[in-house]
């Protein structure tokens, strides 16, 4: 049954995926392209040509382009007579094409004079196929010349030739300068509704209305449409969307109207112009009917399809989806139909989006820069896919399990059969009264056979450690105290020292932090799990008793709780928990067998757990509170703790990389490898996100400094961080509400606290990759909360980055093209990237404001065994 579900669900979702591709690509009938059109705007630049760099096409290239247009158009319109382009009239005559001859007018008066001299020479040659002369192209729009100077130039040229003379400007410029009309023989207007943000379905009516507006204003002057067209690629301009399909629709609709209304027009343009990328941005490149390789960009007669190759792309997205889903379904026997359907939907959505983004990116002209950027984006895209799949997998397993594979065993065992337990309490410079509370909790344990070893390492002040020593003596023979100074190896060194002092009768070693107060049932309930000889670790969650002190601690409590309610529960299903150094028990024999605690590692607990898994042992996680400690008092301490955890994770992954990748033979299962890599993947994502943030700021500065040449990043790529942020936010809020049983306030507080640590984790990722020399960070307890200024100082890096992103967003909005969709999306990206940094500042300030009541967040529900994950009671009682 499970196998058939694994086949049926992907098949159904694949069918929906193909149906979605089909719906989006249904063919639309449009008027057929005429056999021969009036004319093309003609710039015969090839991919390597660039007139701004004085690189012009060869005579042979120009002749080949004119030969391609022969029979397709009556005429071509040129823009300049510079260099080899002065040969166009002669070459066009050989192919039966008329020419509207253009002379370029720019801001350089001397260059204009040279251009007019060349124009005079061509006119003197008397080419009979030259039918009109165009002096200047949008020179007034660019403000390259004054209207008075342009009128003088037009008058000079009109004296040189009998041919009709004009200049070309958008329709509104002609209305602005009515005096210009008196000095031209006809009016040349540009009708490009894309640049005015007109949606495609309104574009033809818009063209007709503007044409009629000029005709009504100047009824005695003939009108020539010098440019009319639609780009196939580039930026979306308000309601105007660029695409090959939209270019096809617009031109075929316009040509149908133009032929019936007998317009004189030149389609903008014959060939794509890659060189315009530097002067007009990406959109300026894609106005051609033919691409830069002289291939037609669309079909001239058949129904229009948005993506002509959609069938191949749909098939590819399904294949990728199936491959990804096969990996996710490898170990999904306990996942319900809803869970498998959710994974299938997410997987196919991700694969479809990935295929479409890559396809869309490859439609642009590839330069060395775009190739390099594309490769970087591909690498980043693979990382995003892996991250999304891991997040979706955890989401599904947290919500839609049909039952537990590994119910948590709570056995009633007679005292005579219980093993001896050695409880180790490492301490460094802990307040004596705090440690006495911990010892009182251990003294009250309901367990017959145990000892407690307190190892105070490197505390210098006798007034700190001597009262603890004396209190252990009062508590009796079960409690032994050791003060060791010096002692290397940090916490791991202290635990290895304790291991050497452990009673030979001890079969189980338990570890708690010096601030934990355990419940009397801790050992009695959990030690019987070691009756399974393969179990090496029994782990209870970290929990805290000081969440009611203030809002900051209540916020931290909510953030901690997610890991123990969600991540650890799902990891336990595949025997892949992260061992954490308090509330943990280890079989003494296995601990000795693997060499004890790793003193090279600052997260020795997680490293030991991985080593035991590599040796083939099992671990059990019981999501029930059996002890409560204290949280960091300040945000500075909170972030130090998380930095240590993240840094240690990187060092562990590097140290065990061969084992995790399967290069060294171990007993690690695929599920264990998956969880140890995927579980820490979000932290690595924070690290790569920091690189993205610096790149985003650099790009934004370039957009601000050079707005005419630097456009926003590719829009589909810019959408990825927004989608990823929204997906992770939705997942977090949903799972917190459903599985952590948190309120909306607690869910938002947890998310805020987690975001506040993003920059710290990112720095830890790079720190762990670069150096292995970080010292152990002890998390201080009962520290005095910082003042407001100190809190701001603690978050100074994040505050500066937040200001940088917000200023960049505001500055980008000052661009003249701020109304463009891609600019607004990029501004949204900048704003979203500022959120984690703003969260850091806010959480740091909250930690300083100790008077802010915890009731603002609200108390978390107890972590008891009957509400651990909401599927069914995960605890079974045997006995």
Automatic annotation (TrEMBL):
Top-rank lineage group of the source organism: Bacteria
Biological process per Gene Ontology, one example term: carbohydrate metabolic process
Keyword Transmembrane in annotation: yes
Biochemical pathway: Glycan metabolism
Name under which the protein is recorded: Beta-monoglucosyldiacylglycerol synthase
Reaction catalysis annotation: a 1,2-diacyl-sn-glycerol + UDP-alpha-D-glucose = a 1,2-diacyl-3-O-(beta-D-glucopyranosyl)-sn-glycerol + UDP + H(+)
Species, as recorded: Allochromatium warmingii
Transmembrane feature ranges: 7-24, 313-329, 341-359, 365-390, 680-702, 714-736, 748-770, 825-849
Gene Ontology molecular function terms on file: hexosyltransferase activity; hydrolase activity, hydrolyzing O-glycosyl compounds
Subcellular location: Membrane
EC number: 2.4.1.336
């Amino acid at each position: 049954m499970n196998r058939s579900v694994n086949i049926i669900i992907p098949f159904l979702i694949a069918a929906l995926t193909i149906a979605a591709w089909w719906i989006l690509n249904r063919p639309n009938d449009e008027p057929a392209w005429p056999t021969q059109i009036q004319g093309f705007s003609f710039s015969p630049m090839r991919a390597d040509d660039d007139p701004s760099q004085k690189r012009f096409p060869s005579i042979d290239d120009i002749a080949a382009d004119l030969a391609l247009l022969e029979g397709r158009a009556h005429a071509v319109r040129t823009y300049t007579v510079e260099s080899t382009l002065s040969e166009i009239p002669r070459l066009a005559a050989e192919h039966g094409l008329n020419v509207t001859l253009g002379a370029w007018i720019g801001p350089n008066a001397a260059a204009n004079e040279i251009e007019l001299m060349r124009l005079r020479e061509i006119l003197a040659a008397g080419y009979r196929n030259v039918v009109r002369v165009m002096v200047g192209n949008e020179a007034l729009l660019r403000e390259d010349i004054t209207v008075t100077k342009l009128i003088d130039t037009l008058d000079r040229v009109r004296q040189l030739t009998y041919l009709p003379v004009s200049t070309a400007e958008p329709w509104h410029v002609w209305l602005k300068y009515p005096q210009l009309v008196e000095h031209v023989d006809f009016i040349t207007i540009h009708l490009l509704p894309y640049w005015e943000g007109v949606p495609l379905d309104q574009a033809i009516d818009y063209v007709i209305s503007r044409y009629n507006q000029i005709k009504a204003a100047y009824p005695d002057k003939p009108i020539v449409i010098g440019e009319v067209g639609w780009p196939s690629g580039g930026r979306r301009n308000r309601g105007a969307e660029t695409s090959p399909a939209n270019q096809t629709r617009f031109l075929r609709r316009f040509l149908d109207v133009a032929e019936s209304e007998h317009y004189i027009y030149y389609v903008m343009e014959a060939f794509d112009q890659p060189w315009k990328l530097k002067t007009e941005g990406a959109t300026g490149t894609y106005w051609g009917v033919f691409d830069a390789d002289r291939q037609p960009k669309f079909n001239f007669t058949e129904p229009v399809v948005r993506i002509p190759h959609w069938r191949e792309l749909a098939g590819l997205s399904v294949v990728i989806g199936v491959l990804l889903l096969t990996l996710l379904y490898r170990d999904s026997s306990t996942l319900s139909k809803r869970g498998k359907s959710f994974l299938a939907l997410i997987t196919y959505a991700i694969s479809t989006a990935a295929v479409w983004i890559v396809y869309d990116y490859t439609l642009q002209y590839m330069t060395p820069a775009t190739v390099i950027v594309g490769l970087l984006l591909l690498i980043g895209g693979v990382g995003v896919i892996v991250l999304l799949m891991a997040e979706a997998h955890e989401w599904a397993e947290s919500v839609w399990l049909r039952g537990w594979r590994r119910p948590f065993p709570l056995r009633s065992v007679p005292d005579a059969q219980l093993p001896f337990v050695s409880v180790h309490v490492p301490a460094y410079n802990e307040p004596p009264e705090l440690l006495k509370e911990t010892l009182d909790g251990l003294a009250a344990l309901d367990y017959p056979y145990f000892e407690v070893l307190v190892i105070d390492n490197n505390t210098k002040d006798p007034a700190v450690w001597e009262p603890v020593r004396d209190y252990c003596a009062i508590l009796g023979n079960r409690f032994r105290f050791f003060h060791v100074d010096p002692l290397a190896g940090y916490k791991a060194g202290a635990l290895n020292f304790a291991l050497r002092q452990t009673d030979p009768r001890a079969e189980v070693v338990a570890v708690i932090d010096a601030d934990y107060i355990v419940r009397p049932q801790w050992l009695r309930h959990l030690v019987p799990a070691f009756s399974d000889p393969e179990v090496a670790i029994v782990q209870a969650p970290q929990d805290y008793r000081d969440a009611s002190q203030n809002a900051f601690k209540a916020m931290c409590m909510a953030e901690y709780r997610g890991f123990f309610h969600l991540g650890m529960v799902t990891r336990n299903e595949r025997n892949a928990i992260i061992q954490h150094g308090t509330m943990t028990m280890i079989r003494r024999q296995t601990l000795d067998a693997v060499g004890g605690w790793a003193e090279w590692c600052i997260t020795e607990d997680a490293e030991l757990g991985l080593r035991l898994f590599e040796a083939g042992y099992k671990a059990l996680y019981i999501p029930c509170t059996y002890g409560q400690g204290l949280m960091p008092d300040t945000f500075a301490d909170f972030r130090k703790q998380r930095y240590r955890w993240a840094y240690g994770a990187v060092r562990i992954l590097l140290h065990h990389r061969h084992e995790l990748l399967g290069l060294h033979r171990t007993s690690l299962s695929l599920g264990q490898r998956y969880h140890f890599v995927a579980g820490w993947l979000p932290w690595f994502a924070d690290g790569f996100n920091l690189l993205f943030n610096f790149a985003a700021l650099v790009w934004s500065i370039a957009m601000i400094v050079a707005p005419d040449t630097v456009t926003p990043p590719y829009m589909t790529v810019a959408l990825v961080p927004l989608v990823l942020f929204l997906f992770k936010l939705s997942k977090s809020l949903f799972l917190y509400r459903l599985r952590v049983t948190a309120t909306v306030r607690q869910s938002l507080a947890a998310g805020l606290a987690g975001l506040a640590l993003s920059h710290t984790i990112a720095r830890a990722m790079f720190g762990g990759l670069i150096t292995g020399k970080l010292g152990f960070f002890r998390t201080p307890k009962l520290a005095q909360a910082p003042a407001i200024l100190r809190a701001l100082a603690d978050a100074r890096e994040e505050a500066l980055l937040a200001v940088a992103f917000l200023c960049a967003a505001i500055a980008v909005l000052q661009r003249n093209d701020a109304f463009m969709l891609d600019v607004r999306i990029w501004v949204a990206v900048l704003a979203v990237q500022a959120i984690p940094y703003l969260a850091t500042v806010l959480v740091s300030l909250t930690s300083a404001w100790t008077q802010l009541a915890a009731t603002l967040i609200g108390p978390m529900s107890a972590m008891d065994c009957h509400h651990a994950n909401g599927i069914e009671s995960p605890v079974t009682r045997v006995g």
